[in-house]
């Protein structure tokens, strides 16, 4: 988990005041990920350049986050962004500080809210109309998931955790029947 700086090389020495730096974070330290610029002004440009001219970007690690917690990484990213004053500097593509979003930020506009039945129905309908995923897309998603790996890899549960998990599963099976009517 790193906080990084991306440099857009063609604009390093520009005199028009165009931004040429971006500060972001990456949970998986991917060499081909250059961040997600979300400002209206630069989003389309950034996406186009990342897709069509990745050779124009240079990614440098600013700091490695020792915690394996996404929330801690975002807090570190925001701290560095504020230190660099990225929002007020014309050197940076960043137009907002990092947010915790769905990672526990109680100031998020969706925090604690549920979707209405009508919204759920609309979301369900939109998923039903999707084209089937191609085998190529499935293969790429599978490869990506394998690269990320499991956050439990190499970790073992202690006896107390195993007992709690076993009790929880037994309780669930006792209160739910098998979807095909088979006895558990």
Describe the structure.
- There is one protein chain.
- The protein is built from five helices and three strands.
- It has helices spanning 43-52, 70-84, 117-128, 135-148, 159-175; strands at 2-8, 21-26, 57-64.
- The protein has a domain at 2-84.
> What gross morphology would you assign?
extended
Q: What series of H and E elements makes up the topology?
A: EEHEHHHH
Strand order of the largest sheet: 2-1-3
The description of the largest β-sheet is: 3 strands, antiparallel
β-strand percent reads: 5-15%
| Rg, alpha carbons | 22 Å
Q: Level of helix content?
A: 25-40%
Structural class estimated from helices and strands = alpha+beta
**End-to-end Cα distance:** 41 Å
Any low-confidence stretches, pLDDT <50, length ≥5?
none
Number of helices: 5
Number of extended strands: 3
Q: Mean of residue pLDDT?
A: 83
Descriptive labels:
alpha+beta; three-stranded antiparallel β-sheet; 184 residues; 5 helices
Summarize the structure.
The chain has helices at 43-52, 70-84, 117-128, 135-148, 159-175, and strands spanning 2-8, 21-26, 57-64.
Show the helix and strand layout.
Elements: E1 2-8, E2 21-26, H1 43-52, E3 57-64, H2 70-84, H3 117-128, H4 135-148, H5 159-175
Antiparallel strand pairs: 1-2, 1-3
């Amino acid at each position: 988990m790193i906080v990084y700086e991306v440099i857009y090389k063609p604009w390093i020495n520009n005199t028009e005041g165009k931004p040429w730096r971006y500060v972001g974070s990456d949970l998986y330290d991917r060499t081909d990920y250059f961040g997600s610029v979300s400002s209206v002004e630069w989003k389309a440009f950034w996406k186009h350049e990342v897709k069509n001219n990745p050779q124009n970007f240079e990614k440098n690690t600013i700091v490695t986050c020792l915690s394996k917690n996404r929330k801690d990484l975002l807090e570190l990213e925001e701290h560095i962004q504020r230190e660099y004053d990225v929002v007020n500097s014309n050197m940076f593509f960043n137009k907002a500080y990092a947010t915790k979003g769905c990672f526990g930020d109680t100031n998020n506009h969706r925090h604690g809210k549920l979707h209405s039945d009508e919204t759920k129905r609309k979301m369900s309908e939109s998923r039903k109309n999707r084209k089937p995923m191609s085998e190529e897309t499935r293969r790429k998603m599978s490869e990506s998931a394998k690269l990320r790996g499991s956050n439990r890899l190499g970790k073992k549960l202690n006896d107390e955790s195993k007992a709690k998990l076993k009790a929880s599963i037994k309780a669930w099976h006792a209160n739910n029947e098998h979807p095909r009517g088979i006895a558990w």
